Amino acid sequence: MTLIPNHLPTADLQALDAAHHMHPFTDGDELNAKGARIITRADGVYLTDSEGAQILDGMAGLWCVNLGYGRTELADVAAEQMRQLPYYNTFFQTSHPPVIALAKRLAELAPGDLNHVFFAGSGSEANDTNIRMVRHYWAARGKPSKKTIIARKNGYHGSTLGGASLGGMSGMHAQGGLPIPDVTHIDQPNWYHEGGDTSPEEFGLERARQLEAEIARLGEDNVAAFIAEPVQGAGGVIVPPETYWPEIQRICDAHEILLIADEVITGFGRTGNWFGSQTWNIRPDIMTIAKGLSSGYVPIGGSIVSDHVAETINGAGDFNHGYTYSGHPVAAAVALENLRILDEEGIVTRCGAETAPYLREKWMQLADHPLVGEARISGMMAGIALTPDKAARASFAAEGGTVGLRCRERCFANNLVMRHVGDNMIIAPPLVISKSEIDTLIERAVKSLDETLASITADGLMVAA
Ligand SMILES: *Cc1c(COP(=O)(O)O)cnc(C)c1O
Q1: Which atom in ligand 1 lies closest to the alpha carbon of residue 263?
Q2: Which CDD domains match (predicted)?
């Protein structure tokens, strides 16, 4: 057995981490100077660190542990599947029971005619698949010029070359020569920060109509697809105005543009229904999935594809694309068990009917805090915007993210994982979180907000830009 035994002392682990481990989305020198917090176990909604502290995980890992930690059924299924068939591919006219069962189950759960699944190892890979699939689709239908994919600024679609190109994160585009050709970006429906004097309803329409303008600019014959998250996650939990999605749907339908809903976060109960597309009444041609699909217990992602797209792709000869781990049997078996528990224990239903509304009631009250300009929520994903001037929806004079980082650090010190995106604070707890755990989450958040306000006031940072 090469399991890591009862671990080394924290300082030794931190030193080895600094010496050999490169962290994603991290300033390496800065982290190595202070040392990573070492997480050793987890159960339910709580993480345990190497010093024994119990941390409430308000982010469900990276938005993925929908089922909560510590479900031994998933471990048992993984072990059993490894004994029976640890690996086989599906490239060369073979298939296996776990991948077949998972594809069937996803077809049942997904709305409309989303009945076919192409598997990947992650959300990024699935979006790379989507780029190739939608371009191949139009080529197969005799319209090879329909290649450009329209996406959104501040969207997040992963970190591969394709995924990061679809994403609209300027900091990511700045490194490594992105975006790839034939991807363009329109503005996001972020009313609080960008809506100015318009009402949210007007603003939602305005931002949706940018899609129509972009299609006109590029020419309808050159546009393959529009991709968006039903609710932007990594961008800061941007909940769109109610007017936004109906108008986007109308435009995609009117111009024969495929609609890709990136449900990597919003899938599997996060917004209170199985998919964000159901919450927001969207009819996507393709859905990207990952994260909550396995509750993060094993890496797996995929694209759920509608009948008409699958028929075209299946009818166009070899699709020259796939991953060694597409439909990995262990990942598929674990995902299936995760979906079984989410369903049979009524976790998605309870979240939609009880705990998400409870969280909403508590979370929206944070808007009364002197440091909070707006509270927003969709199901079990929520954000607040920090501001020095509520009425003006002002940003801080300090560099963006300074106050948010401070607040995150206060939260972490108070044993709550709440993430910051710039000067927004966001949460997406495991869907199994109970009402009393929600109370604890809110208590720790308020305490951290109070401490942040006191500290930035003392340091003269409570100043509008
Ligand atoms: C996390 C995420 C991805 C990327 O998934 P990975 O598994 O990290 O590759 C893609 N889209 C959205 C909306 C995400 O939140």
Answers
A1: 13
A2: OAT_like
